[in-house]
Specification:
The structure holds two protein chains of two kinds. By secondary structure, chain A is of the alpha/beta class. Helix content of chain A is 34%, strand content 21%. The radius of gyration of chain A is 18 Å and the shape is globular. Classes of the chains: A alpha/beta, B alpha+beta.
Chain lengths: 289, 381
């Protein structure tokens, strides 16, 4: 078992004819992802990496019985692309694109919510379920092994760093989710915990957070009250100065909120050990598994 | 993008939101003539992107046009938060009955806009939240229907207003909402919004931040500003032009990595081993050799840098590309301080071979790399 993507997931790539879409659809195919169709308006009838391209998401879905969407469409059009995927009832909808206007994000997130659809991102490396050979995103598949841990993170390469450390230590993952580096994202840490809670194969969680907002604090409070399995944390940005955006739009300490110290304290208060360095995550997991 | 007060007020007035009479001056003489036109005591305010301009002496009152000229001369010579004051806003000094707070921002958890108001304006909303949170009224906006007149009236009544003032203040909030929607605003504040003794509501201050990611929809606004969207030093400009995220800090170790989370974690690791970072430099996804070389070049332009730590976790970024970039920077003679390289992931072996041949050592773990660069930085005089 896993969450959000399993062996039955059938993927549409929106923006497949663009540079990123073409490159990553091939990388996904190499990993084993079941990509059934691509969409680029005006380019229907073409093929990319052997994948048939359609003009609209609905056509692609109907022709190939697709269940999920991965979006590589440029930021000005990404919101519209996500709404099109939601209208076609694809679930989940993974928005890889960075720099999507926040007003568009809000509209996408709430439209999806009303229909019970999960949006991952924007500004995410995507999701990966190693056991089912399904990668809906841009992460290097080989650093993610199959196993009993659910991984969620607001970051990309830091997730690979931690996943590689886990894989090296012989600890695999049910599903790893990049939640996205923007202030407003479709799936929040607390919602991800709730999804993993329903998966019996997920025996422990890793929560990788960073400065900005208080989503980690909220997840910690939920875990304390409701989640019984072990959780290990890591928070990036202990040394980040206030008022500066550290690469991610969402990674900013505003006033006194969003500090790493507050997040670490909240996690510790919920009984969650927090690793000092990325490599300590695997060591802490070995203690609890 | 943050707008200056007078730029924000231009947008306010375009939406029929009342602001005090006055104008922008770049010279003391202009300030005097604006004050003369206003014909009443005025306030002279530095136009800088800093919240603390009042405390820095950037806001002063003048009773006469001559006084306004003297004050403008003084303020135009100030530097606030290291930024020179290039213009002042000269406006009528209002006869205050009540100071009000009105703002709209984004609630990251609800992922909705939230309208915020208080009958106790003047102090910052953070201070107000500390001192008397019960005086703050908040209302989330349903993304599918927006902020409606009855929502605005409810805000006004909850803030303690009665009678005709309810509709007047509600109309203010509705205009503010329209401004947010029309301009992709991520944060706006009017603090204070003034209720005058003769019953008028006026936006005495204006803060307006537009979503950088939405600027492509607001070309006209950008043109009317006639300035760069953000104030950046030369190094920051080069980094932005090359799609890198770059933040200067006060230590001496430049951390050049790929990915924001990894870069932050690398800064933290440096600190854990007793060092201090000078630079957060995220090369971004899929950096090629040229971008790596550029990154090293930009990092070295910052005089505080005494050592460089390159930490790459290859995903879409390929280690052989990174190695080529490092090599190119070294061969150009760009690298003038000790450097530590840690590089794993996609095309790791090819990358390591390039570095081996060039005699550039590399490490395999973040911990080793962070601890080594801290020691090297200590040795540099």
């Amino acid at each position: 078992m896993a969450i959000l993507a399993d062996k039955d997931t059938r993927v549409i790539i929106q923006g497949i004819t663009g540079g990123q879409g073409t490159f990553h659809s091939q990388a996904m195919l190499n990993f084993g992802t079941k990509i059934v169709a691509g969409v680029t308006p005006g380019k229907g009838g073409q093929e990319v990496n052997g994948i048939p391209v359609f003009d609209t998401v609905m056509e692609a879905k109907e022709a190939h019985d697709a269940t999920a969407a991965v979006i590589f469409v440029p930021a000005p059009f990404a919101g519209d692309a996500a709404l099109e995927a939601i209208a076609a009832h694809l679930n989940p909808v993974v928005v890889i694109t960075e720099h999507v206007p926040v007003r568009d994000e809000i509209r996408v997130i709430h439209t999806a919510k009303r229909q019970g659809i999960t949006v991952i991102g924007p500004n995410t490396p995507g999701i990966i379920t190693p056991g089912a050979k399904q990668k809906l995103g841009i992460m290097p598949g080989h650093v993610f092994a199959d196993g009993p841990v659910g991984l969620m993170s607001r970051s990309g390469t830091l997730t690979y760093e931690i996943a590689a450390g886990m894989t090296y230590a012989g600890i695999g993952m049910t599903t790893a989710i990049g939640l996205g580096g923007d202030p407003c994202v479709g799936l929040t840490p607390i919602e991800a915990v709730k999804l993993f809670e329903k998966d019996n194969d997920t025996k422990a969680l890793v929560l990788v957070g960073e400065i900005g907002g208080d989503a980690e604090e909220r997840a910690a409070a939920y875990i304390k009250e409701h989640y019984d399995r072990p959780v290990v944390g890591f928070i990036a940005g202990r040394t980040a100065p206030p008022g500066k955006r550290m690469g991610h739009a969402g990674a900013i300490i505003s006033g006194s909120t969003g500090t790493a110290q507050a997040k670490i304290k909240a996690l510790n208060d919920a009984g969650i050990p927090v690793a000092e360095k990325p490599s300590d995550v695997a060591r802490l997991l070995q203690d609890v598994l | 993008m943050k707008l200056l007060e007078h730029e924000a007020k231009d947008i306010f007035r375009a939406f029929n939101m009342p602001t005090p009479p006055g104008g922008v001056a770049e010279t003391p003489e202009e300030a005097m003539s604006i004050a003369a036109k206003v014909g009443k005591p005025v306030v002279v305010k530095a136009q800088v992107l800093s919240g603390k301009r009042g405390k820095a002496g950037g806001v002063k009152f003048a009773d006469t046009p001559e006084q306004a000229k003297e004050i403008a001369k003084h303020i135009l010579g100030l530097k606030i938060n290291d930024l020179p004051v290039e213009a002042v806003l000269v406006e009528e000094k209002l006869d205050i009955q009540q100071e009000i707070y009105a703002g709209i921002t984004i609630d990251r958890n609800e992922r909705k806009y939230v309208v915020i108001g208080s009958g106790a304006g003047g102090m910052s909303i953070e201070e107000l939240a500390e001192e008397s949170p019960e005086k703050i009224v908040k209302m989330h906006v349903d993304p599918s229907i927006g902020f409606l007149p009855y929502n605005a009236r409810e805000m006004a009544t909850k803030m303690g207003f009665r009678g005709k003032q309810i509709n007047k203040l509600a109309s203010f909030f509705l205009k503010l909402w329209n401004i947010v929607e029309a301009n992709d605003v991520e944060l706006t504040e009017i603090n204070p919004l003034i209720l005058t003794k003769d019953g008028r509501f006026l936006a005495a201050d204006a803060r307006l931040n537009v979503d950088d990611n939405a600027l492509f929809r607001h070309k006209q606004m950008m043109e009317s500003l006639k300035r760069d969207p953000v104030e950046q030093n030369e190094r920051e400009k080069i980094a932005t032009e090359n799609d890198m995220a770059y933040v200067e800090l006060d230590g001496n170790i430049a951390c050049i990595c790929n990915g924001a989370g990894l870069t932050m974690a690398t800064l933290d690791a440096v600190s854990l081993y007793g060092g201090k970072a000078s630079t957060f430099l995220d090369l971004g996804g899929g950096a090629d050799a040229e971008r790596v070389e550029k990154g090293i070049e930009v990092a070295l332009m910052y005089p505080k840098v005494k050592a460089i730590l390159i930490n790459i976790m290859g995903g879409i970024t390929r280690c052989d590309d990174v190695a080529k970039g490092i090599l190119a920077a070294r061969d150009d003679g760009d690298i003038t301080v000790p450097m530590v390289v840690r590089m794993v992931g996609t095309n790791e072996e090819e990358g390591q071979e390039i570095l081996n041949k060039a005699g550039i050592p590399f490490l395999k773990t973040m911990e080793e790399a962070a601890s080594k660069v801290v020691n090297l930085a200590k040795e540099v005089k």
